[in-house]
Amino acid sequence: MLATPVLAQTQQPDTRPDTVVTTSLATDSVAQPSTNLLAASITLTQGDTIPQGQKNPFTEAQRREGENKRYLTRAVLPAAALIGAGVYTIQGNGLFSSFDARDARNRHAPEFATKVDDYVFFVPLAYLYGFNIFSSQNRHEVGRQTKLLIASGALTSALVWPTKKLTDIDRPNNDNYAFPSGHTAYAFTIATVVDKEFRHKSPWVSVGSYAIATGTGIMRMLNNEHWMADVIAGAGVGILSVNTVYWLHDKLAKDKGLNTTVAPTVLPNGRPGLGLSVQF
Predict the structure, then answer these.
(1) What is the dihedral of CA 75, 81, 87, 89, to 10 degrees?
(2) Is 33 exposed, middle or buried (0-12, 13-18, 19+ CB in 10 A)?
(3) Of 58, 70, 128, which Cα lies nearest the Cα of 251?
(4) Does residue 265 or residue 76 have the better pLDDT?
(5) According to DSSP H, which parts of 11-141 are helical?
């Protein structure tokens, strides 16, 4: 088949308002197309609906990231449940309150003290970029991945620090600004980004990231730096921030690149061919 400048008549015209550039692939003017060639000509190539910077839509969940319903059920509701549980257990409230958790800590580990919780939540960040170096299965290109991480961290900060000022709750060690836990929020922010970028590679990547984030929150409580309510709410904030950023990114970036469609065509001379549609 030879490329010709003849305008094609597509069997299924595209009514979308985008600018479309169409060209055709026609059969040779002498030789008739074989059966196999005709069969191949009716193959339709889907448009590129991968968001900018994303290498491949690895999983169904990733392809549906921008759906409002999915965002509500998979991100907003779980995060709201965690934040709500944190509010419910503030100080002496709830069936098992933050005061109860503090008393249990004082009974079983009164001398516990470590600085590990100040650094351990960065471990998933280290193997996030380690995977980028040694694996080609990262979901987004490294530059866009970094921007998503920074945007998620910025949203986490925008939620955590004003809330700390607004609630003005003292910590169990009598320091101020307890609710919610910033360490825990950032730990779950990093863990959730790692989960989204490498979930398709192995579920153990996600399990390990969330285990480290959970351990960070537990150590904040054992160090007497935070109440249980602070830690639970911080986890919800981190999860919500990342999912919100990825949801918005999917909505803003999808279909912004070149989208191509190959469809069977009938040329003005009546011969079959292929039409290539490129949308900008």
Answers:
(1) -140
(2) middle
(3) 70
(4) 76
(5) 35-41, 60-63, 68-71, 77-88, 98-108, 123-134
Q: What residues have CB less than 8 Å from 149, skipping those under 6 apart?
A: 125, 128, 190, 193
Q: What is the rounded CA–CA span in Å between residue 239 and residue 190?
A: 9
Q: Are 193 and 245 in contact (CB under 8 A)?
A: no
Q: Measured in whole angstroms, how far is the alpha carbon of residue 61 from the centre of its chain? A: 9
Give residue-wise pLDDT tens across range 68-98. Answer: 999 999 899 999 999 999 999 999 999 999 9
pLDDT tens profile 40-78: 443 333 334 555 666 665 667 677 778 899 999 989 999
Report the phi/psi class of residue 275: left, alpha or beta, with left for phi > 0 and alpha for psi in -120 to 50: beta
Residues 2 and 30: beta-carbon distance below 8 Å: no
Phi, psi for 64 (deg, rounded to 5): -105, 20
Rounded to whole angstroms, how far apart are CA atoms 144 and 139? Answer: 10
Expressed in angstroms, the distance from the first to the final Cα of the chain is 26
Cα(195)–Cα(184) distance, integer angstroms:
16
CA separation (Å) from 83 to 95, 133, 152, 228, 232? 16, 35, 17, 12, 7
- 29 Cα distance to chain centroid: 51
CB-CB contact of 145 with 55 (8 Å):
no
**pLDDT number for residue 12:** 47
